[in-house]
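Two folds, back to back.
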Amino acid sequence: MGLALAAMVLATAGCGAVATDDGRAAAGAATICTHGTYRWSGVRHWQEVTALADPVTFPKGTQHYESTLKPVDDTVYRVAVSHVPKGVPAARVITALGDRLNVDDPLADPSEVVRPETSQFFSDTGDLEGPYYSWGWISLVEADFTYACGYTAPVRGHVRTWETVGSGFLPCSEPSGEDAGRTAALRLCPAGSPAAEPV
């Protein structure tokens, strides 16, 4: 009898649930399992323009530029994790997604918020000439997950967060390699500029 009881305790310790002799969770027991595995699907990456400077054209010999990046709208970006598994903080789910994507920097966690800024300045020093475009951007990522752990039923949820937030400044003769930069060029560069050509 003592050996059977010890085996039952060991079988349930990893998931934090109380189990009956036939393996079912006892009525009212907390089905918490904190060291499960994730299966990810529907991963999507995209960028959105968050701010733009006014169009500008520099005369030959310009050495310095400073401008204000103005928000394109009043969107506030927040991290969202739906159907968080019991006993697993939302931040840990996001960390698991970052591990899956092998990101260099941690993904934004639930404490982070990106709000429109009316005092975001941009400056550049160098040999400037001709039309330029300047923009702010956010690189978003979302994914579906299935979390499996012990005897608990799999949990299916969704994560939406972001990888990086930044700004860019380029001459209209130089296309951006980023989606947000191409969108900014279409709005700020003269028609026919290399940066404003459709991909």
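---
second:
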Amino acid sequence: MRSTHVLVKGAHTTTLKGGRLTLSRGRRTTTVPLAAVQEVRPHGATALTLVLTDGVTRRLPGGTAHAADAFRAALTAALPERRDPAGSALLTERERRRRPWLRRLAAGAIGLAYAGYVLRVAVGPGLLGALTSALGAPAALLGLLAVRAGTRGALVRARLARRGVTVMGVRGRHPDGTPHGGFTYTDALGNEYGHAKGGTEPAAHLVYDPESPRDSVLRQPAAWVVAKYGLGFALALAVLALGTAGLVHPYV
């Protein structure tokens, strides 16, 4: 099965898959059938220019020169022999709608429900029960989020242990040349990705998933990983248990 080719530059992502190009720019996604593409040309060292069959052009930003060259070669090889002269008329655009009001409404409803619960406890079991409830809910939520984050991290580790690829990550640098906390690495297609903070060395071994290159971890001894996740889960479960106990204390 041929891998999906992706050209990435910041928030700009261009994906070649299934006889079409998908251009993602923030909340907007544009789908370009390959039959509407005349050719793709280099644009500087890292970008490409997409030329449609009706002469309309679109710029495709890329992260590295290697990534741009590899994507151009893959796209050129995938172009069909017969093209549609309609060009840009074949493009479809979709924009995800923002609904901040819905998140605010949900947060407000949860806050009101929680405040009502604390008041009910204060009127019933008393001020001590209200205090334990007020402290218990944030603790339970914090523990639940910690358990969720730890579970996701453990699943990523397990997946990378099965099919991960090891590369050398290089410490990134600020515009003034000083190093920052993250690493950068390049996958087999030449696309560059960033890794979260970890360690102090200028370079380190990173393991990434070739099917999801954004997922990466620092290569560490197995005993250290087991100890780290074991302690993390123990603390998260303890916080969750304490928070839950605070919530149910007024009724026990």
